Amino acid sequence: MVVGEISQERDLVIIGGGPGGYSAAIRAAQLGLPVTLIEQADLGGVCLNKGCIPSKVFTYAAKKQAETSHMQELGLPAGEGTFDLSKLLAYKSKVTEQLRKGVEALCKANKVEVIKGKAGFTAEDRIGVENGHQFDIYVFKQAIIATGSSPVLPEGLPKKRGRILLSHEIFDLEEMPEHLIVYGHDYISLEVATSFHALGAKVTILLEQAADFPFEQSVTKELNRLLKKKKIKVMKDALIQSAEEAEGEVRIGFTAGGKEEQMAASHLFVAGSRRPNVQYLGLKRFGIEQTEEGFVRVNGNMQTSVPSIYAIGDVTEGPLLAVKAIKQGKAAVEAIAGGKPEVDVTFLPTIVHSLPPIASAGLTEQQAREMGMDLRTSQFALGGNGYAMITGKKDGFVKVISDASNEIVAGIHMIGEGAVELSSTFVQLLEMAAKEEDIKFPAYAHPSFNEGLLEAAEGLIGQAIHMAPKK
């Protein structure tokens, strides 16, 4: 300790106010634990302010834009004039601000102490917080690291840029791309590609060093068909080797399928990789175990190799998703409070707010076959669903995979309207080790997209009403 240094004592300190951090803080307050939350920027983190929420504002706007022709078919006014990006940006700001204020109000209502500043460990039981010229020391009993991750450009791409954009930048773009190249194959790449296309941009997808999209094979096949139908060009197994910004455009050199190519566009979106935000925390000073990539190693209770310090969310190994951070944040606090929580991401759903949306949980057909499972599969096309016909959302299907030996459901996959909302049902069924009968027994609202799940389950034994018999 520096001579003259004054330290303050705290029971639980959480570094990072994103979804995982503020959820952990509120759960701690609910359990009667005094809690201090430290955030250097805005509460809600990148997810609320730059990522999850802004991106979904764009995908929602794109969905509405795509419904224009159907609105005219229904006799409803479809509106006049062109798409106004400035209004969408204003709406995005309005939504994020309202949600951020809501988080701030919840922290205040739960008596969560919120401190603004940049935090780092100075010892195993001390955190220093810098805010301008002020520097404070906090001695803690327990701490939770919830600092998230940041996107990183691949090597070879220019660092100073205006038309080469990462995920936290593209939704602040003040001009609509004339031609957008999307470089990546993850969920955010697909959301960017389909939403910007629906809003008027020409889009080309370069699948970064990937032979195809990372979904269940049937879903991937249908996705490729729909992208072709939309005239979104997909180039597979691509690797950008050079990129240069010129007057009003980006020029790239790349290989695709082993062939050298060149392309010019107004903008380039790069999914890139993600790096945990731990470099300024000082973790190596006292030996907190990390992977080669910098992710913090934790046990089942989110505890690090230093027993008094926990870590959650994107700084830990596994899927970099807000839903994981929220689940881990609650579990870490419950463990600190003396409980025995469990975090199991086996059935963490894959969700894509693309046009149309995608949701998957459990095993794919290929994975199940590789495990030697005796399979039953059934795929119900939404074109046979009454509500899909009403809404004009007929693309896609629901697919159910089960083990024929015991009729236990092994995986559920969907591409099409309603997929995101139905994903919670998919996860519940898999978590409870549901049998085919558990899907077929309940009554399903009619008409609704939910009936697609019922028909897919009934199709496992050839009893789906709105599916033609197999030849």
Automatic annotation (TrEMBL):
Residues 11-329 form the FAD/NAD(P)-binding domain. It catalyses: N(6)-[(R)-dihydrolipoyl]-L-lysyl-[protein] + NAD(+) = N(6)-[(R)-lipoyl]-L-lysyl-[protein] + NADH + H(+). Signal peptide: none annotated. Pfam families: Pyr_redox_2 (PF07992), Pyr_redox_dim (PF02852). Its EC number is 1.8.1.4. Residues 349-456 form the Pyridine nucleotide-disulphide oxidoreductase dimerisation domain. Keywords: Disulfide bond, FAD, Flavoprotein, NAD, Oxidoreductase, Pyruvate, Redox-active center. The keyword Ribonucleoprotein does not apply. The active site is a redox-active disulfide bond. NCBIfam families: lipoamide_DH (TIGR01350). Belongs to the class-I pyridine nucleotide-disulfide oxidoreductase family. This is Dihydrolipoyl dehydrogenase. The lineage of its organism: Bacteria, Bacillati, Bacillota, Bacilli, Bacillales.
